[in-house]
Design brief:
Blueprint lengths: L6 H10 L1 H15 L3 H7 L7 E5 L5 H8 L3 E6 L2 H10 L4 E4 L12 E7 L8 H11 E12 L6 H13 L18 H10 L3 E8 L2 E4 L4 H9 L2 H7 L3 H15 L3 E2 L2 E5 L2 E7 L2
Parallel strand pairs: 1-2, 1-4, 2-3, 4-5
Antiparallel strand pairs: 5-10, 6-10, 7-9, 8-9
Amino acid sequence: MTEPLTFHEFERQGWSAERVVAGYPDSFSALTTQSVAALLDAAGVRRGARVLDVATGPGYVAGAAAERGAVATGLDFSPGMVVFARRTYPAAEFQEGDAGALPFADGDFDAVVSNYGMPHFPDHDAFLREASRVLRSGGRIAFTSWAPPAACIGFGVIYAAVQTHGRMDVPLPPGPNFFLFGDPVECERSLAAAGFRSVSVATIPMMWRMASPYEPYEAVMRGAVRAAALLRAQTDEARAAIREAVGTAIRAYAKGEMFQVPMPATLASAEKP
C-alpha cells in the first residue's frame, strides 16, 4: 500500500507543480505584494541588512529587500518557485530548503521574514525556533498571515460556499489551521514561546481588486494548493454551485465595473534578545 502523504509533502508537491508556479503570480501577486513594504519595515530591513525570506515563493519579498539595498536570500521548498524567483530577481540569492530546518549558521541574519508562509508550515514552532537560531542578537522577525475568514472576505466566501453546497471532510492530509496566525493572541504566544521579545501585532488593511466576481474561485483553482484540492474533491454539481455562490457573494462588493474585496492581513514582529 502507498503511504498517505504528510501535510508537508502534500504542500511541497502542490507548490512545485507547474500549474501553481505559473498560476500563482497572475492569481495572487497583486494582493500579496500589498503587505511587502510593511513587512520589511516591521523587520527593520534597510541597506546592508542581511535578510532571509522564508517561503519566498516567486521572490517578491526578497526582491523588494534587495531593492532597498539589503543582502537578501530567499528560501522555498518548491524548485519551480526558486527557478522563477532567480529569473525575476537576480539581485537576490535563492535556494531550496525547509522552513523547519533552515540551512544556515547561527546568527547569519539581521532579519527573518515570511509573507503568508505561516499557513503552509506544518510545524510553526519549529520555524520560529529556527528563525531565532539564525538571527543575530537584536535581529528581528516579521511575518504576515491572513485575518480570519469573517474579515478576509475573498477566502471566507469560498469556505462558506463549500460548507453550504459541498463538504469539508474530504480526504486531504491533516494540516494546521490556515487562519491560526490571523489571531494576534496566537502570534504573541508563539513568538514569546520561541524566546522573542517586544512582540508587536498589527492589521494591514488590504483590498483584492478584481474584474470578475468569480475571481476568488478561479484564482484558487489556478494558483493555490490546499484550497484548490478542497474544491477539486467536490462533485461537479457541488463545484458549480460553489462557484456560483462565490460570484453572488462577491457582487455585493461592486465598485463601478470592478469589485473591491477586503482581505486584511495580520502582521507580527518581534526581536531576538
